[in-house]
Each structure stands twice: as C-alpha cells, then as structure tokens.
Amino acid sequence: MLFGRGKKKTIQIADKKVVNWTYTTCGYCSTGCSIEVGTNAEGKTVASRGVGGADVNRGKLCVKGIFEHEIFDAEGRGDQPLIRDNIHQGYETTGWDDALDTMGEKIRQIQQKYGRDAFAIVSTGQLLTEEFYTLGKLTRAVIGTNNYDGNTTLCMASAVSGYKRSFGSDGPPGNYEDFEHTECLMAWGSNLPEQHPVIYWRLQEAREKRDFPLIVVDPRVTMLAQNADIHLAITPGTDVVLQNAMMYVILDENLEDRDYIEANCVGFEQLEQEVQKYDPASASKICGIDEDTIRNVARIYAKAGSAMSIWTMGINQSTHGSDGVVGINNLNLVTGNIGKEGGTSLSITGQCNAMGTREWSSCSGLPGYRVLEKPEERQEIAEFWGVDPEFFPKSRGLTETDIFPAIETGQIKGLWLIATNPMTSMANTERMRKIMEKLEFLVVQDSYADVETTQYAHLFLPAATWAEKEGTFTNTERRVNIVRQVTDAPGDSKSDLWIFNQVAKRFENGKKVKFPEAPADVFEEMRVLSKGRLVDISGMDHDKIEENRGIQWPYTQEQAEKGEQPPQGGKRLYTEPGTFRYADGRAKLIPLPFIDNNEVPDEQFPLWLNSGRLVEHFHTRTKTGKVGNNNKYSPIPFMELNPDAAIEMGISQGEYVRCVSRRGDAVVMAMLTQRVPKNMVFIPFHYHDCVNRLTLGLLDPHSRQPAFKQSAVRIETLENQEEAAQLSMERRAF
Ligand SMILES: Nc1nc2c(c(=O)[nH]1)N[C@H]1C(S)=C(S)[C@@H](COP(=O)(O)OP(=O)(O)OC[C@H]3O[C@@H](n4cnc5c(=O)[nH]c(N)nc54)[C@H](O)[C@@H]3O)O[C@H]1N2
Ligand SMILES: Nc1nc2c(c(=O)[nH]1)N[C@H]1C(S)=C(S)[C@@H](COP(=O)(O)OP(=O)(O)OC[C@H]3O[C@@H](n4cnc5c(=O)[nH]c(N)nc54)[C@H](O)[C@@H]3O)O[C@H]1N2
Ligand code: SF4
Ligand SMILES: [Mo]
C-alpha cells in the first residue's frame, strides 16, 4: 500500500552538530521572542530555536528568527573604520584611534563655529538599552547637542505622544495575556500575522480557546483582515473620523461607563461637544465605512465585558497619528477599558528595542521617562551624572524629521547616524540625497558597510550587532529580556557601547562623567535611576532577567526582596483609580477635530500609494536581504495592484511598470492581488530607491511622525521590459 503505516518516511532534520546553545532575545521585531543560538565545535553559529519556557513565544519563532544565526557572517559587514575627506573620493581604512580622534575634533570644530546644536545625532530602536542609556549620557552630558533623536520618530512617536496626551506618560498599559481575557479586539492598521507573527499566534490561540469578535481596520485585505469577523476597509488617513463616529454612537445610546469616567477622567464635556459633529451618516462619507457598520462596531465594542485595541503603523504613520492614538484611548476610557484584564490600549511596538529607547535613551528628554522641561528632573540627573544642570537644554530639541530640513537650511552642519539607514527609510529620498550632500561631516555607525547611507559619510564606524554583544531589550508588553553574547563581532568592529565610551574620552566632560564599560554596570545605573519611577526596574538584574526569560516592568526592589517566585512584574498599568500620570491622577479625554490635510488621489495621480512590510524582510533588508531563506520570497521590488485596475491599464502579472508621484518614480514589478482595492497600490519599503522616492511624508503636528502610508501616484507602462527589470534591480542596491 502506497501510504501504509510501515512505509511512512520520517522527516530527517539535518544535524547541525551544535555543541552549545546560548540564550538570547530576537533582534528583529518588538514581540521579544526568547531564542537560543546554536554554535558548532568551531564556534560557528549554525542554528536558532525558540525557547520553550519563555512566556512570550513558548518555543515558537517566525521565519526571521529561525534564520537569525545567519546574519553574523552575512555579506557586507563592516570590519574596519573607513575615512575620507570628502564624499566624492573613495574611503581609506583607518584605526579606531585615528577615527575617533578625527570624530571628536570635527564635532568640536562644528560646535565652536556654529553652536552646540549644529551637530545632530540620530539613533534607532535597535541598540541595547544599556547602549541607549550611554548614548543619552554622552549626548546630554558630554557633547551637549539638543538636536538628538531616533528613527522611532518614523515609527512609535505617535504612540508615545498619544499616550502622553491621554495618560500623562508614555508606557503601554496592557500585555499579550489580555488576549486571553478580552471579549472584543479591535486592530487598527496592524498586520500582525506578518509583522508580529508570534503575537498573532498568541492571539489566535486565545481565539481558539474562547471565540471573541476580531475587528480589523485596514484599507488592505491583510492576512489579519482575512481572519477577522469584521473588516473595515477604511479610507486612508481617516481613522479619527471613524473613532469620533463610534464615540457618537456610544454617547448617543448611553453605552459609556459613567462610574469609570467620573472616577478617572477629565474633559468629558468637551469631548461630547466635539463628537456631535460626527454622526455616522456624515462620518461614513469621509471614512468610507457605512453608517450601519459604524453603529454595529461601536455597540459591540462598548457592550463587551472587556474590549481592547491594538494598533501599529496604520495609525502612527499618519498626519493624524497622535490623534488616532488619543482616539483609541478615548474609546477605552469612556468604556472603562484601561488597566483591566482584556481591556486596554496596547500599542504594538516595532523594532526589537523601540521601548528601550523610549525609556532610557534621553532622546525626548532624560532617562527613565524624565523630561527636560522639569527643573527638578534636570537637577536629579545632573547630580547623578556629576555635571552642571545648566549644561542641559530646558526643553526638547528637534526630532529626526525636523533635523533633516534643518540640514537643508544650513542650521545643522554635522550628523552622526547610529543604526539607521535614512537614505532608504525616510520619505522623499531624492530630497534626502541633496540634504546629505550638504553635510560638512557625516558619521555612519552601522554593522553593515554596504548600507546606502554610507555613500554620503565621511567616517564609517563598524559596529557589532545583536548577539555579538550583551544587554537588554524591552518588548511591546514592557518585558525586559536579555541578549547574551553568542559570537564575536567580525574583524575590528566594536560594540556600540564601546564606541560611545571611547567617544566620551575625546571630550572634556567625558573625562569627568563616569562611563562604565560592562553592560551589567550600566544596567546598575539605570536600576538605581528607575526607583520610584513608572518604569521601575529596581528589582531586576541581568541574571535574574535571564532566569525568568524576561520580567515585565514595573518590578521594584521591594518586590524582589520579598522573593516571590517567579517574579511578577507589572502586568498592567493604571489598574487603580487616580494612578494616571497627570498631577491630579486623572486621564484626559481630548476632543479630536479632523482636518483633512493629506495628499489625496486626483486626476493626475489617481491612486493611493500605501506602503509597509512583508513577513520575510526586515526594514531596509540590511540583514534579511542577505539571508537566502528570507530573501528568496521577494528578491524583486514589487507593487500590489488590483487585477481589475490592471485590466483597465493593460498591465499583466509580473510586468515591470513605473510608478510616479510628484516627488519621483520607482520601477517595480506588478503583482496582481485583490488584497488592495482598485484605487490603491501597496509597495513594501524594504527596497532601496523604491517606494520612498515617491512618498510625501507629511508630518503629524504633535509627534512629527511622517504619513508614509498616504500619498498619490499614477502608473505608466514600460515598453522595454528587459531594461526596466535591470533598472529595478540596479536600484535595489543588493
Ligand atoms: N517582518 C517584519 N516584521 C516587522 C518589521 C519588518 O520590517 N518586517 N518591522 C517592525 C517595525 S519597526 C514596525 S513599526 C512594525 C510595523 O508593523 P505594521 O504596522 O503591522 O506593518 P505595516 O505593513 O507598516 O502597516 C500595517 C498596515 O497599516 C495599513 N494602513 C495603511 N494606511 C492605513 C490607514 O490610514 N488606516 C489604517 N487603519 N491602516 C492603514 C496598511 O495597509 C498595512 O496593512 O513591524 C515590526 N515587525
Ligand atoms: N515608506 C515607508 N517608509 C518607512 C516605513 C513604512 O512603513 N513605509 N516605516 C518606518 C519605520 S516604522 C521604521 S522603524 C523605519 C526603519 O528605518 P531604518 O532604521 O532606516 O531601517 P533599518 O534597516 O532597520 O536600519 C537599521 C540599520 O542599523 C544597522 N544595525 C543593525 N544592528 C545594529 C547594531 O547593533 N549597531 C549598529 N550601529 N547598527 C546596527 C542595520 O544594518 C541597518 O542599516 O523605516 C520607516 N520608513
Ligand atoms: S516574531 Fe519578532 S521577535 Fe519573534 S522570532 Fe519573529 S522577528 Fe523575532
Ligand atoms: Mo518601526
């Protein structure tokens, strides 16, 4: 018998000859999976596996984590500092001493000539928290520029801003366990199965055990939308209108939780007044969701015993990003869904340590969610670091998206980019190119020498990446987990922590301020500074974090001293009335007038351009573009195009076309799919010289985050397909 039991072939898993497994935390997305990397007898990393006892992933990994051991010796790594006088000549290799002396000298020259803030620093969400804290200290206490920010302005800034406006502080109040309790989940602009596959698995597992409605708001039929009970294909950029209309229905039908509002909120009357303008019939004309569906969704959400919202870039990357977050918070506050099991506003964060930078990098202020605007917080940190508090600015400087225009206009002359690749990831890259060429001095500190941005640098500093170093990450649910060192960095590349410490030595203040060398000693400084703060990690240390496969903050010294096992970090924030972070302990309900300021399709540019990500790739592909098992799924820059639109335009599957906006053009392969509506195309932003040549990137007024997902384009067919294929691939960089 062909399929007889005895004949069945067992699957053979290739023996990778692993002699040692090292515990670490995944370095791609903010899910925060615990991962073990296997090394063979020669010390080469040969395998990755999920950690069974870890609460986050319970043994699972996604297609990026499974091949993560391959990134260490992938092509294009930097292994020596590179230097040149001007960007029109080739680089020469140099030693660290020379590289860092030059860097110190150039920064000083620029600051002396043009002022302290004429040198800017832009970092990332992908360093270790100990590195973020050290960079913050270096920037605030030693170099002293206020033009310091991270790529998180492209990513989480709207969530941060929205949390601050509603609750008085940043910090996601919920966790993944809330999926197991909620009676209704609304996902706004989040493609969880592709972008946070393991969080999605946690959600699905909860739904299999106990069904509850899943409502997805996304203009595309994403994988999440396909699995939803209700899919709301919203008109891009109009989520706030839908939120206001839901609020209208809730208040009109008395579905709000009066007791909760009275005990916890201010601003109800102003909100009620504004919402009157958004009756479902009028709102539906703007947001594209019919009025009955708006009513239905509002009732399901408000009547559920507990309801939660998750969201990602479909909300944050919009000119109404911060308002969209406040709108979600408004809905949850009015229905009493904050700080309770299954009732929360949970921003799904992006990069592996987007949370760590928010907490400790001092980008938007001072460490431990302190702000520059409060004299007592400046005083406290100045004393701790041993500097004059007058050295600190008294309010926050420019964000990343304002730093680049300030280079364009000549206020900023020098820039240090750390673990970010804006020549691919910023909107309107043609403008970016001109901006970069204006810099008198650009330092790029990256693990890969072949990143596009290096083409504009005067100095390239090769950095170790991920598990070539040691320290902590914080994930979406405030869980601090540890990255242990698995292998050595290639050649003469060094950890970012080492680089920051060496840069400090090139400045007068840097000789006075203490810069510990060991990551555990840096953690100790953060631990002390966190005492009594919202982000209290004073009960943690590196070993304890590893033993427990991560601990959620807050976790205080007092809790640790009580010795409970396993340590129960803070599962939720704001569980008690009066604990919101405004002085009166109350949350703010904020009215959200909608101003339609997006670039919208018109006769000349008739299609919406939407952009985002794919499961197999991470960002600008510096890592996944070189891992065969990831890259093979989508090596070619492409565009999702609706088949009916394609018929009308005479475009067939696999044909190369030119996509044109007011900013520039991109040559991409047309992939026909019903995932996008007829009036929209979607292009992943993973490829160089591709979608961000087209994007406008209008900024949110509160968070300064760009609207990467709302631009207008037209499509032109191309006669010479061979030439087009070549152009598309050449631009792709690698
Ligand atoms: N595989 C993989 N995973 C990743 C990353 C990666 O590069 N690759 N990056 C990580 C990072 S840094 C981030 S920030 C996250 C991002 O994670 P997500 O935000 O989930 O991913 P995106 O694809 O950017 O966008 C999500 C959805 O927003 C929708 N959208 C567009 N416009 C609107 C709108 O106006 N309203 C609404 N409601 N939705 C809209 C898009 O159609 C898209 O499906 O992923 C993280 N995880
Ligand atoms: N059109 C469009 N554009 C977008 C988005 C979108 O949805 N659409 N999303 C935006 C979002 S949410 C984000 S987060 C940004 C991401 O944009 P970027 O930050 O520019 O993207 P990455 O490719 O992650 O860049 C990180 C760089 O750090 C390097 N690196 C990795 N590890 C280390 C390390 O340990 N040390 C150092 N020094 N370097 C390291 C990598 O090689 C890489 O070059 O893109 C934004 N741009
Ligand atoms: S879900 Fe995110 S953290 Fe988990 S393995 Fe995949 S990329 Fe890594
Ligand atoms: Mo992001």
How would you describe the overall organization of this protein?
The chain has 734 residues and is an alpha/beta fold. The chain folds into four domains: 54 residues, Phosphorylase Kinase, domain 1, CATH 3.30.200.210; 283 residues, Rossmann fold (3-Layer(aba) Sandwich), CATH 3.40.50; 175 residues, Dimethylsulfoxide Reductase, domain 2; 126 residues, Barwin-like endoglucanases, CATH 2.40.40. The strands form six sheets. The protein has a seven-stranded mixed beta sheet, with helices on both faces. Strands 21-25-22-24-23-26 form a six-stranded mixed beta barrel. The chain has a five-stranded parallel beta sheet with strand order 10-9-8-12-13. Helix 2 packs parallel to helix 19. It is globular, with a radius of gyration of 25 Å. The site of iron/sulfur cluster has 14 residues, from helix 5.
Summarize the structure.
Helix content is 32%, strand content 16%.
Topology readout:
Elements: E1 18-25, E2 34-40, E3 45-50, E4 82-83, E5 92-93, H1 96-114, E6 119-123, H2 129-143, E7 148-150, H3 157-167, E8 185-188, H4 192-195, H5 197-209, E9 214-217, H6 223-226, E10 230-232, H7 239-252, H8 258-264, E11 265-266, H9 268-275, H10 280-287, H11 291-303, E12 308-311, H12 313-316, H13 321-334, E13 344-347, H14 354-360, H15 375-385, H16 400-408, E14 414-418, H17 422-425, H18 429-437, E15 441-446, E16 459-462, E17 471-474, E18 479-483, H19 496-504, H20 508-512, H21 519-530, H22 542-547, E19 551-552, H23 557-562, E20 587-588, E21 607-612, H24 628-631, E22 638-641, H25 643-649, E23 656-660, E24 665-672, E25 680-684, E26 711-717, H26 721-731
Parallel strand pairs: 6-7, 6-14, 8-9, 8-12, 9-10, 11-20, 12-13, 14-15, 15-16, 21-25, 22-24
Antiparallel strand pairs: 1-2, 2-3, 4-5, 4-16, 17-18, 18-19, 21-26, 22-25, 23-24, 23-26
Helix pairs in contact: 2-14, 2-19, 2-21, 3-13, 7-10, 7-11, 7-13, 10-11, 16-18
Residues 26, 28-29, 31-33, 57, 61-62, 64-65, 196-198 line the site of iron/sulfur cluster.
